[in-house]
Amino acid sequence: MDSADLKGSKKLAMGLWTGIIAGVAAAIISHPADTLLSLINKSETAGGTGGTVSRLKNLATEMGFKKLCLTGKYKANAVPQNVVCNYR
After folding, report:
1. Are 75 and 56 in contact, with CB atoms under 8 Å apart?
2. Max CA-CA distance within the chain?
3. Domain boundaries in the chain?
4. Is the CA virtual torsion 43, 47, 52, 56 positive or negative?
5. CA–CA separation, 32 and 71 (whole Å)
6. Global confidence as pTM
């Protein structure tokens, strides 16, 4: 399907859907890093002592990959989608 062939509301709908899909993909990819940064910014002692990179590594090790990827996932996806869907 070529976007040049679309007109009016179909073009708008295609733009919204592609934006939602791209937004969800970006949220999934960046979520672990965002979670780590939120944790490290909440407390000066989060992740122990040392430089920022070593603290981030310590936090990632403590949380584990699964928890790091899934913590707060609903909010990270639901809020931007809600904003996009309610924009008319």
Report:
1. no
2. 58
3. 31-88
4. negative
5. 8
6. 0.59
Handedness of CA 66, 68, 72, 73 (dihedral sign): negative
User: For position 80, what pLDDT does the model report?
Assistant: 61
- How crowded is residue 56: how many other Cβ atoms within 10 Å of its Cβ? 18
Q: Which residues of 38-47 are buried (b: 16+ CB within 10 A; e: fewer)?
A: ebbeeeeebb
Instruction: Note the Cα 39 to chain centre separation in Å.
Output: 15
- CA separation, residue 24 to residues 62, 64, 75 (Å): 26, 22, 11
Hey, how many other C-beta atoms are within 10 angstroms of the C-beta on 55?
19
d(CA 46, CA 54): 11
State the Cα–Cα distance between residues 48 and 58, nearest whole angstrom: 7
Q: Cα 18 to the chain's mean position, in Å?
A: 16
Average pLDDT, the chain: 77
Q: Which residue has the tokens 């592609």?
A: 18
